[in-house]
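Follow-up to my post from last week.
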Amino acid sequence: MSATIEYTPKDYKSDLKPIWCPGCGDFSVVQAIYRALAAIGRPPHEIAFISGIGCSSRIPGYTTAYGFNSVHGRSLPIAQGIKLANPDLLVLAAGGDGDGFSIGGGHLPHMVRRNMDIAYIVMDNQIYGLTKGQLSPTSQKGRSTCTSRHGSLEAPVNPLLYMLAYGAGFVAQACPTDLAGMAAIIEAAIRYPGFAFVNIQSPCVTYGEESQQLKSLKAISENLETIGHNPADRLAAMDLAQDYGDKLHLGVFYRNPEPPPTYGDLVKERQERLAKDAIPRENILDLFIKK
Amino acid sequence: MAIQGIDLARQSLLDALDLAILVEEEAQERYGEFADQMDQYRNADAARFFRHMVENEAKHGEELSSRREQRFGDAPRKVTRAMIFDIEAPDYDAARAFMTPRQAMEAALASELKARDFFEAALPSIQDAEVRELFQELRDEEVQHQALVQAELAKLPPDSGISPEAFVDEPAAQ
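User reply:
Got it. Predicted complex:
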């Protein structure tokens, strides 16, 4: 690591120009990521940024980190593989609500229980934007779209409550209404030693409803620090998380005050313990040869 | 609009100049991004206006940089871009794919107002006389910029009242 070099947000910005719709919340999210990474100060070549499929999943390409715009819903398994293969990398995963909570939803509890040191940023816009506006898992009940002309019959998932109930050690929410706060939250998520989840309410200006645009979100937002929330109190966090969809709480819902060892720590410890009795690599095939 | 790690009340003239330069730099970059976004949507009029704003912000930034150089040479910079958030740069939310030139100018006007408010709000607490003078000057310049944009706006014919968004293709029937 090159701790002596100071990095600026510009160092993490790639030459690729974002093709998101003008006004999209994701422009602010990528800015917040540049700033968070600059504050952390790891050089871009020590960062791997993995995403799934969707508008927001284009985000790794707009950074100078190693990036993989991977497979729909599979950012987390790929990020885990990368982290396992090279534990020294700072690994980020990102995607949208459809990618993360629908097709990729099954990976979440396993990601949490495995507790790998990865920060997962979801840009939650309550719609499938890239495919032109269909219901997503976080779309509100009654939401009318091109595939639900008479309104959705399904209740939305609550990503914050899910993650808290699964036992995630770091759960936070941010919004482009507060760029400085968003950058600080992403930085805190990356610094958390273990799996960290940040839900970002990032409006879709093309298919999102008026009530989901920044002006409306600002009106219902409330800073968790300001209301005196204690981020070490998981039950209080779960209580607040139930407001998802009605109020927009911004900040850290829960940060485990005593983070348990990560999967990487446990793997390393086991490898070191078993190393002394391990068969040399060049003799591994002998295990399969009858003598 | 926010700053972090800067004590406006106690800042030195050098720091204040650096802050002002970075504010212009941030705005210049944002207008550049907006122009690129408009280009992608073949919105040439709005793109042209945003490029004009890029030039304006660059010019102002260069003036401030030259003042800094004359006064402080290449003294190290303590204020960084990571410390400022959308002071004069228009909010990302202000752009729309099919915005009219009028809407583009209104977005710029809102940003000039935002910047003016920033300098104005800081003034009462500033202790250093030279810094106060600089902030007053910056505030007044933002007011002049507003007047310039307003003059340009006055030359434009009114928008038709029909939203270009209304002509955007509906998602194909699924």
